[in-house]
Amino acid sequence: MTKKINLLIGSALVVLLTTVGLLTTQVGAEESEVNEDVELTEEQRAEIEALHHNAFEQHKVIIEKYVEYGVFTEDKGDKMKSYLDERFEKLKENDFIPKMDHKQHKKKKDDNDSYFHNHQGFHALVVFC
User: Fold this and answer.
1) Which residues lie below 8 Å from residue 56, measured CB to CB, with a gap of 6+?
2) Per-residue model confidence as pLDDT tens for the chain (129 residues)
């Protein structure tokens, strides 16, 4: 039973990361097509906020599973979840309009071991922040 659950979770992750990897490729191609001057209505902002909140919470569940299975240490899991919280707050500050300034995505010297910088799937989800 546990093997089936692990296989199901693993399969879902593969699909998710593959899909997100494809989105990353498209993001680079469409970078100049993002209109950052748009102002969302309160209703639109609330809807986008709920979607992002759900996505980040789902990622936290995935991270917690990796910690539970021993893939990540608890400290690493906490850092990853903290990073997601920071990205969500940045989105909020920008009224949920994606800022496509890639200067913010350059590696910092102390970020060399960051999971998000070494795994394209998770990094792609935070590109829209």
Assistant:
1) 84, 85, 87, 88
2) 666 666 556 666 655 555 555 555 555 544 557 788 889 999 999 999 999 999 999 999 999 999 999 999 999 999 999 999 999 999 999 999 888 765 554 555 455 455 454 444 444 444 444
The CA distances from residue 93 to 10, 87, 88, 99, in Å, are 34, 10, 9, 11
Nearest CA among 96, 1, 106 for reference residue 47: 96
Q: Return d(Cα 73, Cα 64) in angstroms, integer.
A: 10
Q: What does the alpha-carbon distance between residue 55 and residue 119 come to, in Å, rounded to a whole number?
A: 17
